[in-house]
UniProtKB/TrEMBL annotation, chain A:
Protein name: Arabinan endo-1,5-alpha-L-arabinosidase
Domain of life: Bacteria
UniProt pathway: Glycan metabolism; L-arabinan degradation
Record-annotated Ricin B lectin domain positions: 374-441
Automatic annotation (TrEMBL), chain B:
Annotated protein name in UniProt: Acetylxylan esterase
Species whose genome carries this gene: Mucilaginibacter gossypiicola
Domain of life: Bacteria
Upper taxonomic lineage: Bacteria, Pseudomonadati, Bacteroidota, Sphingobacteriia, Sphingobacteriales
Amino acid sequence: MKLKILSTTTLFLLWLIENAVAQIGKPFIHDPSTIAVSNGKYFTFGTFGGGLISEDGWTWQGGAVRPGRGAAPDVLKIGDRYLVVYGATGGGLAGGHNGKILTMWNKSLDPESPDFKYSEAVVVASSDGIEDNDAIDPGLLLDPTDGRLWLSYGTYFGYIRLVELDPKTGKRIKGNKALNIAIDCEASDLIYRDGWYYLLGTHGTCCDGANSTYNIVVGRSRKVTGPYLDNIGRPMLKGGGKMVVMAGDRMIGPGHFGRFVVGDGVEKMSCHYEADLDQGGYSVLGIRPLLWKNGWPVAGDNFKEGVYEIESERRGYALELGVDFTRMPGGMRFNRNNDEPVKPVPSQELADVIKTWPTGDIKVRISDYMFRPHQKWAISPVPNAGGYLGGPYYKIVIAGTERALAATAAAELITVPAFTGAPEQLWRIDQLTDGTYRIMPKIVPGSKEQLALVSAGDSTPALGRFDKNSDNSKWNFRVH
Amino acid sequence: MMNIKYRTVLLIVTLMILVGLRLQAQRPPAKIDSITANDINRSIAPFFIPATTLKMSPDADGFIRRWLLLEPVNKSIRSNLVFTDSYLKKEFETDYFPNQFTVVPKDGEIVKVGGQQLLWHALESPDFNVKLFRFAYGLKKQTYAVLFWAVTVVNSPREMKNVRLAVGSNGGSAWWLNGNQAVVLDGDRRMVMDDCVSPRLTLNKGKNIIRGAVINGPGLSDFCVRLLDEKGAPVKDLTISLK
């Protein structure tokens, strides 16, 4: 066996990459805006100005530009322009509650674009410092049913309020009066889905690192103006809210929800964590799958490396290597002498079977899961291979080997004897809104089409177009 | 040239300032901002109206809106994360004024707590919750790092078994029914209706005294209280008085 000696730093970096379930790079931000795409890049802005940019949605660096400083911006693309909104508190954040919400436009969010130029910011809402509201923490919604533009804002100092803006100018609709829609939360955001308006708010304590109790809750209403009720019918105006996400995976204090629809059946939510214990306890950008359960949004879990059964949602069969089935000691096991001692039977191990496997490429099929070595897949992120919104590329190998799952030019599946890092051996794993998974190769050789792992038959996998309405396109990862 | 110690202190101070910038709802400002300092129209209206002797029941959702409130006891609390069970036990078991666990005070009655002369106010809230921050602000009292006492009298037409006292408070609080502690809300809480409820209790026929203490550091203080029957529905066939 050849041992490589790695420096402590390299080991630590590898450990970080393989364990990180937040983003990599320098994803340090507080109060991130909803993620927006501009000029082929991902952008999010934070408190005090500036923000993060990512080429692929996984590795983030500073460099985004937002004037006005202030706090907790949001971004919404309307037509071919971006409306950026942020809060500026007249009394200073450590002082009073006389806040202002300002909007401004830009044709591009990318400072490298020739179109990058902010319009002059205009005030669209304010609080006088005494009333039961603090005009800070804005969130935007363009109602897809009628094109009206809404802004929610506020913090723990009184009510969360709703006002209407003009989607052409970004200014307040003349004569529009603010509505109270919630109490005791901050960082509100409105989204619409399937006939429901959802109001998301952050509860708990902010800004105390690993002691922050920040968490994101939701209520919903048939009307954008409310009332927003939680899952037991409690109004958000009386403090109600159903949990969307709280601490976990060594990341503490999620707040400032944003929704990003990747495509049919694939949604992500952004937030910040007040403290990522794997990244110095600093506040970092978080991106997680957004699931919908019984009409309620809930954060999914970012995929974790491990050894899994890859189960088809179609039949419940498991993805496996196309090798000869090796029997365990069997035969009729139910006609026994009850006085005989009972002893455990060891599971079939890789060493028991691997010598019977071909050494070249081996086909892939789907079959009954028997927890045999040819059905156990080790899935782990590939360092320095980049990623996509919210996740790194993974390699999928038979556990205990380097035999890797790969896409072929014929849009079929194969396993190759050793993982080389070739793009057809890199896999994107997205949890779908129903909790199942989509599995896609980074590329299909010779094709520009983005295909996903599908069940062409109960026992036959292939690559095909993803269909969110078909169980043929969906998979589960099970641990046995 | 700055020495290391000075630079370290400067760094710590700078970090504290940066952290403090986002703690608007969490920490008291170093000094009152000019807007609130110059607010000459401070009043507890419209958040409270004086309590009357008119018959009053819980509201449509069962919330009790008529209370005797003691002006806030000044405390020194930098962060709301301190409100552990043991902290609250110590704070609420402290003797602040005579007969604090038995008295049903009168409107305008004065008690002395340390160096403070504090008045009891008989008030009604137009809303389901009792906005203690507005009570303190309107009376030009300290608004952050404060302890409030509240008392009300619930008159039941019959003995009611298996009721629960349901409370939401910002921040930590403790509540007693007829002298027995019923429920404690620990931690840095926002006020959420029915956040914590007591074990099953019995309401006596006639007079029952509900007493509460709410402690908070930075941020808005308020509470909401109602009684729930054994099916979880609000108990509304009660009257609320203050004696």
